[in-house]
Amino acid sequence: xxxxxxxxxxxxxxxxxxxxxxxPPLSHYTSFRIGGPADVLAEPESAHELAVxxxxxxxxxxxxVLLGSGTNVLxxxxxxxxxxxxxxxxxxxxxxxxxxxxxRITAAAGAPLPLVVGRAARDxxxxxxxxxxxxxxxxxxxxxNAGTGGVSLGDALVxxxxxxxxxxxLVLETGDIHFSYRSMELPADATVVExxxxxxRGDRASVRKALSAAMERRRATQPWRQPSAGxxxxxxxxxxxxxxxxxxxxLKGMSVGDAVVxxxxxxxxxxxxxxxxxxxLALVELIRRRVKDAHDINLELEVRVIGEGPANV
Length: 313
Fold this sequence. Notes:
- The protein is an alpha+beta fold.
- It folds into 3 domains: 3-86, Uridine Diphospho-n-acetylenolpyruvylglucosamine Reductase, domain 2; 93-218, Uridine Diphospho-n-acetylenolpyruvylglucosamine Reductase, domain 3; 223-306, UDP-N-acetylenolpyruvoylglucosamine reductase, C-terminal domain (Uridine Diphospho-n-acetylenolpyruvylglucosamine Reductase, domain 1, Alpha-Beta Complex).
- It is built from 7 helices and 20 strands.
- Strands 6, 7, 8, 11, 12 and 15 form a 6-stranded antiparallel beta sheet that branches. Strands 1-2-5-3 form a 4-stranded mixed beta sheet, with helices on one face.
- Strand 17 and strand 18 (259-261) form a beta hairpin.
């Protein structure tokens, strides 16, 4: 560890109560199980700690990146030169019941999305049960407008609390929240601290039944037992999903190294054991080229590629 790194770690430890780790292998912190080392990994336990940390890193001109559960991320093989801030220790969840036909749930960035969806279902609240089975943190789900089929988190979102690149708090209310397919319009360099969804009171048994059905569909149609980063490409259109296009071209099972197009769902690339980021990106490029040649469609990545390495494809 260099003197500069040691000094940086000491500063971060003075700011946050959570874990601070030097040179962590990022493969340990993503669902893909891929990625080289970061300089430092930090886990603040509160929004205040996060704000102070971001502010200090800005003052020091130290690059940083936010990471939730790491389910939609591919870190490069060379890792990340800077600080990876994990929000997993920020797990608060509150429910506002006002006797009306709706309830608001506010969840911190690090709260697991399945936990939020499950809690809503247990209370008979409808609106996000279709998101059951989507892994990852609530903050990441807000930032990417996570969804499935015709349902997205943005449909229920009424408030987002953010930090800008200097650690200053920003709040977006209903009229200021704009989203589209797998995209949330947030200020540049903004970090999600928490979000609030508005859900409608429903029949508890019906909501739980819908939740179970959504989970069973995902387990039957996705390679949930294998390391992956979820869907690799955005769907070109609702009636022409990326997985179906790739499947029709006969690309299931195609591989580069240990990166393989899933036999279960063609829009998943799975890590057979020792895949590298270079393997995944090479396979991504092969798929995109085949789809472009066959259908003149440019597939857009849904997975976020972070770190030092070849240019993002």
